């Protein structure tokens, strides 16, 4: 399938559905008029319609008009949506992309009762500014369709192909991870305010510093400790602050949080049944 001018139905025009649609169009490779977003409350999609996207509350119709179907509803909303669109699916035409947390390729095929090609993708909200880290996997899609999905997500950030068994881990690290890093930036800004900066200045300084730290790793391909060693002067203030944070469980809290999120992601869909 050539991605150019393919019709795309994004079922679930919420946070991620909208962010994906905007990122795809911002990449210059997709046209807003080829993307239909669905949700029950379509009034909330009016700003997208004003920007040229199509909006609908009719999932089955959106699917019947599309080549690529993106599932972007919550895990607990998935079964009713799949039941609703099942009749409209043509397995020889439709390619499914699912970003739904905790739902396996086989879960989707079993519920649909049709063997469609499904690629799972786990992006994050930075997709809106084309800075996502997206993990991709498929058990049954053709190499051409996996390539096509990679191209879609490469247009909105970085991609990596992983085994499906690691998708819940990927959810914790890259999708929930946005919230984890944002909370650490907020904590840094709060510390900055306590030591003398106005809140807005402290937040801007903390965010740019976090961006610089991440960019150092990506630019040099180095390990965090190599970069940390360049900051920590002997008997200096950095190592004093760093050790105080570690005494209070900084790394441990992040590791435990990521493990808890991965366990929860694994059960999000099955616990609903
Ligand atoms: N948020 C994130 O950072 C990430 C989320 N994910 C996954 O992506 C999926 C979407 O998450 P997110 O965008 O945050 O969730 P949202 O709740 O923002 O979006 C879900 C959307 O689905 C719509 N919806 C619900 N039922 C139906 C239906 N029957 N037909 C059509 N649309 C429907 C809702 O609108 P309405 O109520 O009007 O119908 C809502 O807009 C989830 O599975 C989540 O696990 C994956 C990676 C990152
Ligand atoms: O919190 C959640 O369940 C979703 C999945 C990953 C990010 N947000």
Automatic annotation (TrEMBL):
Its EC number is 1.5.1.2. It catalyses: L-proline + NAD(+) = (S)-1-pyrroline-5-carboxylate + NADH + 2 H(+); L-proline + NADP(+) = (S)-1-pyrroline-5-carboxylate + NADPH + 2 H(+). It is found in: Cytoplasm. GO terms for molecular function: pyrroline-5-carboxylate reductase activity. Pathway: Amino-acid biosynthesis; L-proline biosynthesis; L-proline from L-glutamate 5-semialdehyde: step 1/1. NADP(+) binds at residues 11-16. SUPFAM superfamilies: 6-phosphogluconate dehydrogenase C-terminal domain-like, NAD(P)-binding Rossmann-fold domains. InterPro entries: 6-PGluconate_DH-like_C_sf (IPR008927), NAD(P)-bd_dom_sf (IPR036291), P5C_Rdtase_cat_N (IPR028939), P5CR_dimer (IPR029036), Pyrroline-COOH_reductase (IPR000304). Its main location: cytoplasm. It comes from the Bacteria. It holds the Pfam family F420_oxidored. Gene3D superfamilies: NAD(P)-binding Rossmann-like Domain, ProC C-terminal domain-like. Keywords: Amino-acid biosynthesis, Cytoplasm, NADP, Oxidoreductase, Proline biosynthesis. Residues 164-268 form the Pyrroline-5-carboxylate reductase dimerisation domain. GO terms for cellular component: cytoplasm. Residues 7-101 form the Pyrroline-5-carboxylate reductase catalytic N-terminal domain. GO terms for biological process: L-proline biosynthetic process. NADPH binds at residue 59. Belongs to the pyrroline-5-carboxylate reductase family. PANTHER family: PYRROLINE-5-CARBOXYLATE REDUCTASE, PYRROLINE-5-CARBOXYLATE REDUCTASE 3. Catalyzes the reduction of 1-pyrroline-5-carboxylate (PCA) to L-proline. HAMAP family: P5C_reductase. This is Pyrroline-5-carboxylate reductase. The gene is proC.
